[in-house]
Please model this.
Amino acid sequence: MTDELRIFRNFIKKNNIKNSRSREKILEIFLNTEKHISIYELHDLVKRQYPEIGLATIYRAMNIICRSDLAETINIGDGVKRFEHKYGHRHHDHLICIKCGKIIEMHNDDIEEIQKKMCKKFDFKMTDHKLQIFGYCKNCLD
Amino acid sequence: MTDELRIFRNFIKKNNIKNSRSREKILEIFLNTEKHISIYELHDLVKRQYPEIGLATIYRAMNIICRSDLAETINIGDGVKRFEHKYGHRHHDHLICIKCGKIIEMHNDDIEEIQKKMCKKFDFKMTDHKLQIFGYCKNCLD
DNA sequence: TATAATAATGATAATGATTTTCATTATTAG
DNA sequence: CTAATAATGAAAATCATTATCATTATTATA
Ligand SMILES: [Mn+2]
Ligand SMILES: [Mn+2]
Ligand SMILES: [Zn+2]
Ligand SMILES: [Zn+2]
Model:
């Protein structure tokens, strides 16, 4: 059994949620993609193997998967939530190509440090942050 | 006439848009608030002086005001776009209190510099970026 | 294993922000 | 002043997401 499945089942047990075949299939398919994936795209993927699974079930499953800390959402401002793996992936920021939609992941410790410093300056207790850089990726520069 | 009104009328002229009383009133009221304001809130404000102005007109006006670079949108992830002044306000990032909704503005040149460096590293041509830090403001810490 | 309690499901309706449509009104060039 | 056309408000449409509800699946326990 994978770490992720173990974590998921633990979360299910701890929260008086019942097990469900569908939900574990959704988790499996989500974990097998490396995209920043929307509900709609994930539903499409899931339907290929399990055509009977409805959209609402994907919403409900991804909600629980996020609460179990296996996924988190990103919002690039186009009105659609996307999901990415959280387990085994350290915090990172995103470079988002406004032409092709490509999302590049990056991390920089200095930025993180300065952020903390700025929070201290404003007596602000940070719980989370997101840095998104919009522009053109390598391939989309003429 | 204010700088802003001049810029606005120039933009109107350059883009074959007709002048409109309502639109300039919306602009005026928007410029008189210093909040990060939603369409709904702005409509409420506008209705006090001009009860006949409809919601769609606020949407249409703010869209043009943004295109004229007098305003820009921020999206703090609650599904509602907010607008803030752009003219005469340099770029800044936001600390967003997840309890009371307060938005603190901050700017740090080092962060901006590192961002540019990271873009170079990935051959990415930045057009825009946003950094949002979520947490608790001074007043909301117990 | 059978059963009762209850959570999960899919279809569909509801919601909320935003956009579009359309008939009417306002602006503007000539 | 008039014709052309953009702007308007009301209402309908759209789109992502959430809630509802009757049915099905899971699970604890008798
Ligand atoms: Mn990512
Ligand atoms: Mn601001
Ligand atoms: Zn690209
Ligand atoms: Zn606060």
Q: What stands out?
A: Residues 55-67 of chain B form the longest helix (13 residues).
